[in-house]
Specification:
Blueprint (H helix, E strand, L loop, with lengths): L3 E2 L6 E4 L2 H8 L32 E2 L5 E2 L2 E4 L9 E4 L22 H16 L9 E5 L6 E6 L7 H11 L9 E10 L6 E3 L2 E2 L5 H7 L6 H16 L2 H12 L8 E9 L11 H15 L3 H9 L1 E3 L7 H6 L1 H20 L1 H4 L4 H19 L9 H4 L2 H8 L8 E2 L9 E2 L19 H8 L1 H4 L1
Antiparallel strand pairs: 1-12, 2-5, 3-4, 6-8, 6-13, 7-8, 8-9, 9-12, 10-11, 14-15
Helix pairs in contact: 3-7, 4-5, 4-12, 4-15, 10-12
């Protein structure tokens, strides 16, 4: 189940005729909670805006929010990108984050026990460690990005338990539905791939192309020629930026995708709901409705960051500009001339294989937030990993001279290159994984 959240900047508002609202909903309420809400008797004279100019919400019989104003937008304005505030994700999985909407179907005795019941049934013993959550900050922000969890958010638990009780063979015993994984990320990630499984920034294509100078057999030489052609046609980060700019103008491609994985124990579901039609109507459609409930919507909105139009994903270009500029200069001035004319220029200096790999790992981290790419050996001694961990942005040690002797070509002081500790004293490297993925392990060895 993966609903999408979209945001579009409104250029204007127009109040909706209250009678139009009542014709559709008949009854409207002050809140979503059936135990505390009040019926709005006179919607015509019910304030539209609060003191801060925000629309005062009203709700339907089912607890769904009702729009009171039509929104207008400029068709030339791109949609807003959405991500998650990673500092606000943890409360989604904590018991206190559950919005206290009472289940009107439960009697007082069952209501007193419901929290312990559904937490024990779905998550196990509440005293055990909380759901593991993995956060992935983007664009070196440290706190804005995407997340994955080995569980589902707490506001889903109560309605999920109700659904399981309704469709299950028995209301007692193990549940027929289990939520076991969830994640939230921007859908643009699906539109910046040359291959289905791999984000462009994850592949290290320039590292692979640079290392192709050491190809030995017919197979690796062909691969080296292909990677050189790929990089020469358009630098990978330029291709990545082009794909992101294409995606930013489509609301669906720039939406927040909230994925949830469930296990259905078919044998525990009532027989009449096990067929295709019965399962779709009574299980999947009811599960889908849960995701549009106020509990779930309000929880997800509380952790969502909405960017102004045309900011995301372009902010990834802006914040990685120093890294992509370094990649461009190293490739253009230190690598490509050697690869295009090896007979005259020889192979590139191996140090630029490693420098390229370091820069591509920084680019990978900026786009994916995957900390595993931050090498703790070479990248730590080059200050890159430490810069990201301490300040968010990468830093480089004095061994890298950006301008070079002519102020145009970056170069590396080999005397300052980090070495492995005794007894090896070998130069540290970080390109092994990229070379292995491109050519196979024997090429690196």
């Amino acid at each position: 189940m993966h609903p999408h959240c979209r945001a579009i900047e409104a250029s204007g508002f127009e109040p909706i005729d209250p009678q139009r609202i009542l014709d559709r909903y008949t009854h409207v309420y002050t809140t979503a909670d059936p135990n505390t809400r009040e019926l709005i008797e006179d919607l015509e004279n019910y304030d539209l805006l609060d003191g801060d100019g925000r629309e005062i919400p009203i709700f339907s019989e089912d607890g769904l929010p009702i729009l009171r104003r039509d929104r207008f937008r400029d068709p030339d304005t791109p949609p807003c990108g959405l991500l998650q505030d990673l500092n606000k994700v943890l409360p989604l999985f904590q018991e206190s984050s559950i919005i206290p909407l009472q289940d009107p179907e439960l009697d007082d005795g069952e209501r007193d026990l419901q929290d312990e019941d559904f937490i024990a049934d779905i998550l196990g013993d509440p005293s055990e460690p909380m759901t593991p959550i993995f956060t992935y900050p983007q664009f070196f922000s440290k706190n804005i990005g995407q997340w994955q969890a080995d569980g589902i958010i707490k506001p889903l638990l109560r309605p999920l338990r109700r659904l399981a009780r309704d469709i299950g063979v028995t209301a007692d015993g193990p549940l027929c539905i289990e939520g076991f994984k969830s994640q939230a990320y921007n859908n643009v990630a699906h539109h910046v791939r040359d291959k289905a499984r791999t984000h462009i920034a994850q592949r290290g294509p320039l590292t692979g192309a640079t290392a192709g100078a050491w190809a030995r057999d017919a197979t690796t030489k062909k691969t080296a020629l292909d990677t050189l052609g790929y990089a020469s046609a358009q630098l990978p980060h330029e291709r990545l930026a082009r794909q992101m700019r294409t995606a930013e103008n489509h609301a669906n491609k720039n939406a927040l995708r909230f994925e949830n994985n469930f296990i259905f124990h078919i044998a525990r579901i009532k027989p009449e709901y096990r067929s295709g039609g019965g399962f779709y109507e009574h299980v999947l459609m009811k599960l889908r409705k849960i995701f549009f409930s106020p509990e779930v919507n309000n929880a997800l909105r509380s952790s969502t960051v909405i960017f102004k139009p045309a900011v995301y994903p372009r902010i990834l270009e802006w914040t990685t500009y120093p890294i992509t500029t370094l990649l461009d200069r190293v490739w253009t001035l230190r690598v490509k001339p050697n690869l295009m004319n090896p007979a005259e220029n020889g192979r590139p200096d191996p140090v630029y294989v490693e420098l390229t790999s370091v820069a591509e790992r920084c680019l990978n981290f900026a786009h994916t937030g995957a900390a595993k790419v931050l090498n703790r050996n070479l990248m730590w001694h080059m200050w890159v990993t430490r810069g990201i961990l301490d300040n968010g942005f990468p830093a480089f040690w004095p061994g890298l001279v950006i301008g070079g002797e002519t102020r145009t070509a970056p170069f590396v002081e080999l005397s300052q290159w980090p070495l492995a500790p005794r007894p090896e004293y070998m130069p540290l490297v970080v390109s092994k994984r990229s070379q292995e993925l491109t050519y196979g392990l024997p090429h690196f060895l």
